[in-house]
Amino acid sequence: MPSQKQTPVKYYVGVDVGSASVRAALVDECGTVVAHADQPIQIWEPQPDHYEQSSADIWAACCSVTKKVVCGVDASQIRGVGFDATCSLVVLDKQFQPLAVNCEGQNCRNVIMWMDHRAARQVERINATHHRVLSYVGGVMSVEMQPPKLLWIKENLEESCWEKAGCFFDLPDFLSWKATGVTARSLCTVVCKWTYTSDGGWDDSFWKMIGLEDLVKDKYEKIGNHVLSPGEPVGKGLTPEAAKDLGLPEGIAVAASLIDAHAGGLGVIGADVKGHNLPCENQPITARLALICGTSSCHMGVSETPIFVPGVWGPYFSAMVPGLWLNEGGQSATGKLIDHVVRGHGSFPELQAKAAASAHSIYTYLNSHLDLIKKSLPVGFLTVDLHVWPDFHGNRSPLTDLTLKGMVVGLTLSRGLDELALIYLATIQAIALGTRHILEAMEAAGHHISTLFLCGGLSKNPLFVQMHADITGKPVVLSKEVESVLVGAAILGACASGDFASIQEAMAKMGKIGRVVQPNHEHRRFYDKKYEVFLKLVEHQREYRSIMNS
């Protein structure tokens, strides 16, 4: 029989810039990751709460990992490129060269990271204005957003940075500019982190009220006056210079970008769930919550009409899924907190040695150790006398209080491996209890969420996943591809290429379910009690602070 000619597979490149590394993946039209690479990037911490990076270092890493994943692939089969990144602030001068965001004048350090809290005083003053745009960020602006950082630069680096600056980019938009030479911004970044509204654009009165009227005078040229929806093609695709840097052909479609958490949401929230016996199967996508958990965690819920949730960012129109409103809860330190607690414990060297001897990661070893010491109890019940309040880096949602501190109740003089395992477990439970706190705020405001969709580094930890199922009482869906954020970035590239009619179509085709983790409902009473204690902890913290400040 004559052989039938097969249609060549179409590929898309997704590039994800996280807090500590850059990753790239080559993803096919069915959402399968066929190649993956990563490379660390540098972080400077010149003083407490100041975190800086280098846009040149980040772009070099993007080029390195992209070249690795496309090596050996027929370039004609690569159809589009999508970028996502943390919502860090990139500053360039009027010649588009890096400009220092520090008193030392180190131009290579031209990025204020998302988790930088140097602008605490500035955000207090912004929130004191009670301007109407704040209703779209849960009523209170976060120090992690861009207006307070811009105000800090003007007030602390006016001559060396503010007056010399030609462009202030959100990091995802910097990447699309480097790829295309076009300074267009993504609706995702400007709506979620800069106070732009999809119906009214920039609000002159806000910028004037907070003392950044300079931005209004130049018609917002420095922060963006050309806005594209995520997934829209940017300019004429890759420039010759960028194509050479990335190892791709000139002119390949480049998509308007997304913030990293939103790319993760895109990669998981639209997956087909038929046949998995999930409560969301016959419900709209608004019954799902995407939880992207890495260094920090983001809780992404969508709605058909705007829902204003106190202490939760949004509603943002079309910031993640076109045509739907987005609310975004979050925890500023989750993976970072677990690392901090585990690595700072006196028994960490012993844990390291034993994990290495067993050829397991430290977290796989800790999970196994908990199974050994639990005896007849469920693992989670081991923390009956040990409780953690997880806001070691302030509370993003739903309390929006960056001054809150972490708490541990129930410590003893013991410092062995058993105690390390228990504080590790209690910390994971505290993070899951924080998710329950956010969910309750969203549901009280009008969301109806029945199922959690997890992705990100922490979703690889089975204990973290099970605790989220047990503590929230909701099933957790894990995607087939662990690297859902990269799949989300690739979905953007697929849309920009024109191969899919819409982001929704690409989400359904390229997002795939892997495993479902059901909650242990018989444990509900225990976790209800843990949650009651959890809420008491912050009550007590506020009470003792009130006493000390009286």
UniProtKB/TrEMBL annotation:
It comes from the Eukaryota. Residues 11-267 form the Carbohydrate kinase FGGY N-terminal domain. GO terms for biological process: pentose metabolic process. One of its GO terms (molecular function) is D-ribulokinase activity. The keyword Transferase applies. This is FGGY carbohydrate kinase domain-containing protein. InterPro entries: ATPase_NBD, Carb_kinase_FGGY, FGGY_C, FGGY_N, FGGY_RbtK-like. Gene3D superfamilies: 1.20.58.2240, 3.30.420.40. The lineage of its organism: Eukaryota, Metazoa, Chordata, Craniata, Vertebrata. Keywords: Kinase, Transferase. It comes from Galbula dea. NCBIfam families: 5C_CHO_kinase. Residues 289-496 form the Carbohydrate kinase FGGY C-terminal domain. GO terms for cellular component: cytoplasm. Belongs to the FGGY kinase family. CDD domains: ASKHA_NBD_FGGY_D-RBK.
